Amino acid sequence: MTSTHSTTNIVIAGLGGQGIITASDILAEAAFRAGFDVKKSELHGMSQRGGSVTSDVRFGERVLSPMVPAGEADVLLVLEPTQIEINRPLLRAEGVLLTTDVIPPDALKNKKSLNVAMLGALSGVLEIDEDHWLNAMHAHLAEKLHRINDEAFELGRRCAQPD
After folding, report:
1. Which of 61, 64, 115, 129 has CA atoms 20 to 30 A from the CA of 106?
2. Can you list the domains of the chain with their CATH numbers?
3. pLDDT at 2 over 50
């Protein structure tokens, strides 16, 4: 995806405990490894009790603010269906809405890897090399989780490919 402006704006939304912050950390690091200036912010709400969580990641040649302005998200990635309509106003008219519908329900070996599978789907619409994604994932996840998350990431990449 090439943004219509010099900054790419991504919003990741879901509920506390779904790995929203981890996913945004991985995305931010992958973009940084790809040579972009990166800014990130997050809103936790009642995140430890399953409340709404959003994280904004902005990257480009030069990024001044970490917050994605309303109506300017290039991609809205949502891990919890109840959060789609709540966050839809953040998405620009031509933006991409990525929901968990792209991942077959029984395809994940570990349901806790849904956030990483969704990053795999996201990787298909961003111009960041796969190596940067994998290196960022490995930097943020315990070594014992690398294999299962590598598989989840690849599943997301495959599932999000257009037929």
Report:
1. 129
2. 7-157 (3.40.920.10)
3. no
